[in-house]
Write a structure and sequence with these properties.
There is one protein chain. The chain contains 21 helices and no strands. The protein has 366 residues and is mostly helical. Helix 9 runs antiparallel to helix 10 and helix 19 runs antiparallel to helix 20. The chain is globular and about 60 Å long.
Length: 366
């Protein structure tokens, strides 16, 4: 009931374009509460996090481990720590979204259905996403201070989940390619997709060797290199990988669909769209890495957040009006791609579809 009421007020706000900041804040605080009060019996990773917290196992990244140990030393139970940290994470995510768009209600609705269910289970991934989103938001302005701050925040995010390291390349990409025409992005996306097919055919031993080298150099998790050589070796099944390949193509088309709105007459991407547009390139990167392990689908999930930002900005009052038919077609196509992405992860990768009613608190805890 709580979720239904929250989404209802969110839809009204999104359609009316009224009270978007308040509505969005309410939604993300409710999501923080729902994630923070998860059902221990119907949340795949709950027992793992509980054991790590209570036994001080230190089996996660340094940032998460430090915060968890600090909370434990302060006398907080795991349940209290999870709730407080979830509220803080979703507050950070809300602040990040406010830096991208005024159309916060639309972002909140799409996030709830496309990303939230799995981040409510994989809480470190949710922490990483929130901080990465905040970090990349500073790249909307071309300023050295912003590049440094963005890099620092993204690195900080990797202290909560090591896959955040992948997004350290975003500030570099934006710095080098900020004044390039949008067709450069199209070519990069195409090359990434083609390479993903190539490595899917020939195997990913080269990618794994490179990943191990990067992990041993920059990894913030003591066992990251071991995970890359053992945990992150469950290569994606061909049929599942093909589904994600189609999804990646759909999302990669977003900059093309919105070209007239995110680029100028010379084909240059507008300054405040460069960072979010280039994150679409990481759908292809995720596909390449998924040749090694299906767990790299998390990169695609993070990239989908920035796709949500792009779509929300297209539907905001900040941009030129388009025909109602075009709006409907684009929104339905995006919603289909987003739901397909979530479904493919829930059913084809993590197999937690039976936990959804408990994650959303549609079914009571009892």
């Amino acid at each position: 009931m709580l979720l239904f009421l929250t989404i209802f007020q969110n839809v009204i706000s999104s359609v009316s374009k009224k009270f978007q900041h308040i509505s969005g804040l309410i939604t993300f605080m409710v999501l923080g509460y729902i994630a923070g009060t998860a059902n221990a019996a119907h949340n795949a990773d709950y027992s793992l996090y509980l054991a790590s917290y209570q036994m001080h196992l230190g089996n996660f990244e340094k940032g998460y481990t430090y915060v968890a140990n600090l909370a434990s030393a302060s006398g907080l139970t795991y349940e209290q720590f999870r709730l407080i940290s979830s509220i803080i994470v979703y507050l950070i995510l809300y602040i990040a979204i406010c830096r991208y768009t005024k159309n916060i209600s639309t972002v909140a609705i799409l996030y709830t259905f496309i990303i939230f269910p799995l981040d409510a289970i994989q809480v470190r991934n949710g922490m990483m996403l929130a901080i990465v989103a905040l970090g990349i938001s500073f790249l909307q302005k071309d300023c050295w201070k912003n590049y440094i701050l963005s890099f620092m925040l993204i690195y900080f995010a990797s202290l909560f989940h090591s896959l955040g390291l992948v997004f350290l390349t975003v500030p570099l990409l934006v710095l080098v390619l900020r004044h390039k025409r949008i067709f450069v992005l199209y070519h990069a996306e195409l090359i990434a997709l083609v390479l993903s097919v190539f490595f899917r055919i020939v195997g990913g031993s080269v990618i794994q060797s490179l990943s191990l080298k990067v992990a041993s150099t920059f990894g913030s998790r003591g066992t990251l290199s071991n995970n890359l050589s053992s945990v992150y070796t469950n290569s994606t099944k061909v049929n599942v990988w093909l589904i994600f390949f189609v999804i990646a193509i759909l999302f990669s088309l977003l900059p093309f669909l919105f070209q007239k709105y995110i680029s100028n007459a010379d084909g240059l991407i507008q300054e405040d769209y460069v960072a979010t547009s280039w994150v679409m390139f990481f759908f292809g990167v995720s596909l390449i890495l998924m040749v090694i392990s299906v767990d790299y689908v998390r990169i695609m999930r993070v990239a989908s957040f920035f796709a949500i930002i792009l779509v929300a900005r297209m539907f905001s009052n900040e941009l030129k009006k388009r025909s109602f038919t075009v709006n409907v077609i684009v929104f339905i196509a995006f919603l289909f791609a987003g739901i397909l992405l979530m479904y493919a992860q829930i059913k084809g990768v993590y197999r937690v579809q039976n936990e959804l009613p408990y994650i959303y608190k549609i079914i009571s805890q009892n």
